[in-house]
Amino acid sequence: MKLLKDIIYGIRIIEIKGNTNIAVENIDFDSREVKNLSLFIAVKGVSQDGHNFISQAQNSGACAIICENLPDTLKDDITYIKVLDSSKSLGIVASNFFDNPSEKLKLVGITGTNGKTTCATLLYDLYRLLGYKTGLISTVNIKILHKTIPSTHTTPNAIRINELLSQMLKDGCSHVFMEVSSHSLDQNRVSGLSFDIGVYTNISRDHMDYHHSLNDYIIAKKKLFSCLKNDAVAIVNLDDPYGEEMVRDVIAKPFSYGLKGDFDFKGKIIENNISGLSIEIDGFEMTSRLIGEFNAYNLLVVYAVAKSLGEEALTVLTIISNLKAPDGRFEYIVSPRNVTAVIDYAHTPDALENVLKTLVSLKSDKEKIFTVFGCGGDRDKGKRPLMGEISSVYSDKVIVTSDNPRSEKPSEIIKEIISGIPKSKFSKVLTVQERKQAIKVACELAKSGDVILIAGKGHEKYQIIGDEKLHFDDLETTIEIFKQIQQ
């Protein structure tokens, strides 16, 4: 229980109607969750406007309402607080309600199109092995020490984030590593959080169904760095063309990293093969089980963050040399017939190209690459032909299939993917709508030494078809098919 006057501290208030010296037992932005003595924050969302549900919250026992527009009818026993921005207020209120846990933790936020999950997970694993009590908030899962909680969003809502950080603090965590999505930044879900370090990985086309333009996407990403305090650190990839923009006019201390310039943290790939990377970082040579140039950048992030937090270079490099990638990130298995299957979450044009370029660089002239992928329904349609073209350029055989079609017809999504493939490359393209069958076709066609890339879903254990969420696991399916073919 908290006093209303304490949990609204720091929000931009326009007007107050009623008493702020009252007890609040819960905070909610979903009117269906409102109970007696709840504070309801009316947030304008993507599909719903919380202001339309103020009356429902009032009838359910709300003792106070935060909103941008006061309702026509005010109740005498409810306090109304008019604010400039409800979504920003929600984050600050949530932090205050849980006693601002982010201020008592070393909180590292990682944003960018690709690499967020890998960087956050590697940092969690590194700090756990360094002996710290550590938390993780990522696309794949949430971890509090050794306890794993399933994740439903890359970045949870503001109330859930602070609830998790509060629990992590109670369980003794000192460091928390967190993916910060563009959606969460645009929707102010991390408003009120105190980050010690913000990391920028890269930007390529993604979420254009939501942001509408690349510029909007960049602006959303930059919000992480604009909210950093002057004693915080901003670590940015200056090999990426938008790296400088991320730290322009920010008050945090900027540090750069990359493979192609004289940066604060610089790396150089010495060797890259199917067994891993040999890389030089700040003059130290190390090997890693991770594969590909994109993972060289991820390893640089982990090193840069650890160094910025005061860890010793050789200790950090020794530990990260033994870390493995998260589930569904360039995860590979080899069949009894010597066919390698790579399972990867690559679901953007840039990510797909990075993985395929890596595979091309690792194979011999005789070995072939089979790519199995689709695109999600009800998401950015513009990337579909781009991914079709990329797959046809770097693959010997492309099998276009279904991903998570959601409310769209899989056949229509497949047509849009194929529309980007040049006619000269049609001969290498097959369409197999059912995903399991598509993987099976690739496994049957591949010969010894060949590589099958199964892209788009990675760690996901489901397929969304219509309104149904059905069990489907690319890795599990591939292992099953490999066994069947061997028999």
How are the elements arranged and paired?
Layout: E1 2-3, H1 4-7, E2 13-17, E3 23-24, E4 26-28, E5 38-41, H2 54-59, E6 62-67, E7 79-83, H3 86-97, E8 106-111, H4 116-129, E9 134-137, E10 141-144, E11 147-150, H5 158-170, E12 175-179, H6 182-186, E13 197-200, H7 208-211, H8 214-226, E14 233-237, H9 243-247, E15 253-258, E16 265-273, E17 276-281, E18 284-288, H10 293-308, H11 313-320, E19 331-334, E20 340-344, H12 349-362, E21 369-373, H13 383-394, E22 397-400, H14 410-418, E23 429-431, H15 435-445, E24 451-455, E25 462-465, E26 468-471, H16 474-486
Parallel strand pairs: 4-5, 5-6, 6-7, 8-12, 8-13, 9-12, 13-14, 14-15, 15-16, 20-24, 21-22, 21-24, 22-23
Antiparallel strand pairs: 1-3, 2-7, 9-10, 10-11, 16-17, 17-18, 19-20, 25-26
Helicity, as a percent range: 25-40%
> Which value, in Å, is the CA radius of gyration?
24 Å
Sheet/helix structural class: alpha/beta
Strand order across the biggest sheet?
Answer: 11-10-9-12-8-13-14-15-16-17-18
- Judging from the principal axes of the Cα atoms, what is the shape? globular
Counting DSSP E segments of at least 2 residues, the number of strands comes to: 26
Strand content: 15-25%
Give the biggest sheet: 11 strands, mixed
Number of helix segments?
16
Ranges where pLDDT stays below 50 over 5 or more residues in a row are none
- Average predicted confidence as pLDDT: 94
Report how far apart the termini are. 63 Å
